[in-house]
Structures
1.
Amino acid sequence: MKDDMNPQQPAASSGDPQSARSFVIRSTGHDIEGAPMGAAFPPLLDVIIGITPGETSVDTEFAKAEEAARLGVRIVTDVSTSGDATLRRQILKSLPVAVRTVPTYDIHRAFKAGETARDATLRVVEEHVRDGVDCITIHATGTNAGVRDEEVTSRIIPVTSRGGAMVNEISTHTGRPNCYEEVFDEILDICAEAGVAISLATTARPGSVVDALSASHIHEIHRQGELARRAHQRGVDVVVELMGHVPLHLIAEYCTLARTVLDGAPFGALGPCVTDVAMGHDDVSGAIGAAVAAMHGTSFIACLTAGEHSHLPTHEELLRSIRSFQVALHAGWIAFSGDLTRDAAMSRARNANDWPRMVELSLHPDDSERIVTAAGYHVGQVCSMCGSSCPIVRTGAAVRKQGEMRILEG
C-alpha cells in the first residue's frame, strides 16, 4: 500500500505502459529532488510567474514562487519578458523547485536588436541552460506546423501563444523557417549534455473553446510528435504543451490524440479553460478542466488565476488558484489511478472525529489547522455543522448499543 501522505509515489498501473514515458525533470546543474513527470506519477501543478516590465518586480514574483514552493508546487515557469535573468537565477539558487523558462522571449528581443535569428537562438538557449534551468520551453512547431493563413484566420482567436507569435514574426522578417527548427539538433546536443528537458510549446493551441481541435492545431500536435521522437532518439526528455481552451467533452479526445502521436511524451495543459465566459473566475473554469484532463492522463497543468484574461495575478489570487488546482488534480488522479488510499484514511479519521489526523491528511494542512484551532475541536468532538444531530455520533451510539445487546444475549 502506498503511503497516504505521499502523493508523488508512482501508481501501480496508469495510462498505457507500452508507450508512456516517465522521468524526473532535473538538470545536472541543479541540486534539487526534481519534478517527477509522466503517467507513472500524479499530475504536476506548474505555477507561472514572471516579470512584465512596468507591471511587476523581481521581489513580487519571487515571493509568489516562494509561497508556491511552500504549498508543495514542484515546478515553476518563469515567463519574464524583461530580458532580466535575475528572477530565474534567484529561484534556482534559493528554492527546491524545478525551473522552466521560455527562451523565445529573449530570442525575440535579441533579434529585434539586430542579432541573427540563428545566433540569438543558440546563444539564448545556451545561456538559460548554463544558468542551470531544468526545462526550456521552445516554440519549434509554429511556422512549420501547417499554421497556414487560411487555417489561422478561420479561427476566432488566430494565435494565443505569445512565444509562438514572436517566432512567427521572426520568420516573417527573415523569410526563413522556424528559428528553433533550423538549429533543433544543436539544441538537443546542448540539452543532452546538461540533462535539461525540452517542453514543446504550442503556437496553435486553442484560445477559444470554439477553436478546439482545429486543423492547424491537430497538424501541430503531429509535428510535436515528430520532434519528440527526434529528441528521444538523442536521449533528451520531452514534455508537450497540449491544450488551452477546450470544452469538457473534447478533453478526452485531445488526450487520446496525444497518447497516439507524441511518442509517449508526457503532455500538459494551460488549465484547460472549459468555457470562455468565466471572466473574473477563470480559476474555476480552469480547475474544472484540470480535473477532467488529469482524469484522462494529462501529466502537468499550468494553473490559471481568476483574472487570467484581464490582469496579472496578485499574490493572493495566485495562492487561491494553487489551492484550487491542487484539489482538482487530486480528484483527477483518483479517477485516473483508482488510488483512494488517502481519501479512505481521511474518511476513517472523519468517522472517528479525529481532528488532528484530519489536519494531517488534508491537502492543505495549514488551512485545516486554522479551522480546527479556531473552533477548538478535540478528538471525538462533533463539528458545528450538525452539532448534536451528527450522524456519525448517532450511528456510533447505535452500533455500540447493538454490540452491548449481543453481549447480553450471549
2.
Amino acid sequence: MSGTNLLKDEIIKGLNETSKYLLSHHSCEEYYKCLKLEYGKKTYYFCSRCLGIYIGLIANCLYYIYISKTSLPYSMIFLLPAFALIDWTITAFGFNKSSNSLRILSGFLLGIAYFNGVLVFLRDFPDYNVAAIGVFYALFALILLYLKERKRKHTIL
C-alpha cells in the first residue's frame, strides 16, 4: 500500500471517528442534551443549545439584511448571553437537568447576542464595550468551569 493510500485511509478513519462530534460535542451520557434524528440506519444527535445558537444567528442575520440595519443596544448584548450561562450553570452543578426547549431558547438568545456583538464590534472597530462584554463572559465562564472541576474532584474523593 502506498503512502498516499495510507494517508487517505488514516484521514477517513479519523473522520469516521470524529464525525459524531460535528453535530454534537456531547458524550453518550449527555445525549439527553441533544435532539435525536434517525435517518436510514443512522442516528444523529444535535446539541440543543448549539442548534439554538445557529437559529439565532441565521434569524438575526436575515432580520438585519431584510428588515432593519440596526443593532441591539449594549445592554441587550450584555443580558442575552446570561440566559444560556444560567441554564448551563443550573445543569452543570446538578441543580436541575433543564430541558432541550430551554436550551434551544437560551441558545437562540445567545445567537442573537453573538450576531449583534460581532456586528457592533466590526462596525465600530475596535468597539471596546463589546470586547469588555466578551471578556466578562469568558472570565465568568472560566470561573464556573474551575468551580465545576473542583466540585467534580471533591465528589470523586
3.
Amino acid sequence: MSDKWLFMTASDLGRGIDFGEIDPVALTECYLDAASNHRVSSRVYARLTEHRARAEAKAAKVRADMGQRRGLLDGVPISWKDLYDTAGVATEAGSGLLKGRIPEVDAEVLHNATEAGTVCLGKTHMSELAFSGLGLNPVTETSPCVNDLDAVAGGSSSGAATSVAFGLAAAGIGSDTGGSVRIPAAWNDLVGLKTTIDRVSVKGAVPLCTRFDTVGPLCRSVEDAAHLLAALEGGKPADLCGASLDGARLMILDTIAFDDIRPEPKAGFNSAVDRLKAAGAIVDHQNAPEIAEALALSGTLFASEAYGIWKDVIEANPAVMFPEILERFRSGAAISAPDYIAGWRRLEALRALWGQRIAGYDAVILPTSPILPPNAERLLTDSDYYVTENLLALRNTRVGNLMGSAGITLPTGLPSTGIMFIGAPNSEERLLRLCTAAENALS
C-alpha cells in the first residue's frame, strides 16, 4: 500500500488519514524513504528535514487519533523550495552566495502550513536565486524532467515539481515571479497555481523581484491546489462542488502566445481546447496589443529590480555564480531609475486595458509554455541556446505576472505540455472552480 501512497493526491491522502486508513507516521516514513533512496533524490532535495518531519507526523497522528485534525491536509508530507526560510535549517536559494545561511524562524507561509498540520519533508533544489525558467543549476543540482531525465525540469521551482512528479512528496511549494510555478508544473504534468501578488505572504522568502514575487503550490489536482492555498494563507479552501464548464466563456490569447511554438505544446493545447468545448465551454480568439507592449517592458522591470536587490551581494563574490545567471542579473545595471518608473507607470495603464478586455470572460487560455523541456547538457555548452530557450520558456507565463493575474496550469494529457488559465487579480476561487471542471474534461 505504501508505494501507492506516493502517487496519490494530497487530498486523497488526507481523506485516508481522516478515515483511519493511513497512519501519518507511516506515511511520512514512506516519503522520507523514497526521498532518500530514489535514483534522483540528490537532484531533487537540497536537504531533508527528517527530525522535523517525524515530530510533525507524530503530532498529526495524535490529533487524528483524538478526532481533532486541523484540516484535510493535516499529516500530509510536502516539500518546500529552498527559498523559504526554515528555522535552524540552511536556506540557500540555490546559490553559493548564500551558502551556510541558516534562518532563525520559519517563513510565514511555512508557519501557516505547519499550523494547518502539513509535514515539512525538506528543501528542494531550484534555479539560482530563482532567476531562470529552466531549472538548470550547475552550482548546486539540476533536477531532471520526469518525462526525460536528460532534460531540465523547468524553473525556478524545479525541485518542487520533481519532488511530486517522482513520488517524493505529496505536493511541493514553489514561487512564481515570471512563471516559476507554472513552467515546472507543466513540464512535469502537474497542476500549478500562481497566486495574485500580495495575496499570500512572502515574509521569510528569499526575494527576487518583490513587485512580482508570489507563492504557489505544485500538486496532482486542482483540489490539492485549493487546500494548499488555504494552508499557505491560513484560510478556508474554495468550494469546488458543482463546478461546470457549461456556458463558461474562455478567451484564447492570440497575441505572441503562439509565436515560435513547437509542435507538441501546440498539439497539446489544441486537443485540450477541443475537450473544453465538448464540455460546454464557449471559446473566442482575441488579440491584445497591450500584452505585446507589456512583454517588451519585461527586461526593464524584472532585471532592474532583481539587480537592485542583489547587486551588493553579487558583486562581493560574482565568481561563485553560474555565468548565465550572473549576466542576467547584471543586465539590470544598465536600466535607469526614470526608465524603471516610467515602465511601471505604463504597465499600470496596460493592466487597466487588459482588465477591460477580459472582463466578460471566465478565463484567458493559452499554452503554458511554447517549448518542451530543453536538454540540460546543451544548455550548459551552448549559450545562444540557453538564452533562446530561457526567454521562450517564460514568455507565455509572464503574461500573468505582468498583468498581476492569478493563474493555473493543467496538464493536457500530452507529456510536458500544459494549458494555462489566467483570471483577474484575486480570482483564485473562481479559477479553481473553473479548473476543477476543466480538469474533469481533460482527464
4.
Amino acid sequence: MSGICNNCGARLSGNYCSTCGQRAKIGPITFSELREDFSQSLFSVESPIAITLKTLFLKPEKLFSEYLNGSRKKYYRPVAFFILMTALYLLVRSLIGFETNMDTIATVDENTADVQKEATVFMILNINKFLFLLVFGLGISLKLFFYNRLRIIEYWVIAFYIAGIYTLLTIFGTVITVYGSKQIQPVIILLALVYFIYCCIRFFEGNRFVIGVKSFLAFLIAMLIYVAGSFELSYLIVSYII
C-alpha cells in the first residue's frame, strides 16, 4: 500500500508505517475501535501495563535495567505508570465510598495550635494526594545510600515505579478497610517496605545484608520526607489558600 502515513507523514510501502508503526489504513474512529484499544491496553497479557506489572513483581531488576538501558517501548513509562495507579486509586476510593478513618483524626492533640491541628487533619485526609513527595524522597534516599551506582534522575525513574506499586497496594488496602472494617494501612506500609528491600537486593550488586540495611534506612528516610513534606504543604494550604 502506498501513500502518506497519517501519524508521522512518512511515505508508506506496506500495511504498516516503517517509521512509527501505525496501520496504513486508518478510518474514522468507532466505538468498537475505542473498546478494543482500551481492552488491549489494560487487559491483554501482552499490553505494556500487564508486562510492566508482571515484571515489577517478579523481576523488578529486569525492568529497571532494561528501561534505563533503552528498552522504553516495552514497558509502561514510569511517570505514566505512577499517574495511572494514582488515578485508579482515586477512582476506586470514589466508587466504594471510602472515607479516612475518623478515629485517627480524633487522636490529634486538642492542645495543638488551631492552624497546626487543621494542617494535620488536612494532611491525614489528603496524604495519598502528596505521593509525588514519596517519589522525590525515594529518589533522594536511593542516591544517598547508593550514590555511585546511578544518576539521581535514574533513581527517580525507579522511584516512580515503586511508588506506583505502593499506590496499588494502597488500593487493595482501601478495599479491605471498607469491606473488612479493618484499618490495615500499617500492613500496607510494611508490605511496601518489604517490596522496596526486595527490589534493591535484586537490582544492586553486592552483599545482600548490607544492601538490605541500606534499603531499609533509605525507605525510612523517604517516608520521613513524604510525611514531613505533606505536613508542610498542608500547613501552607491551610494557612494561605483555604
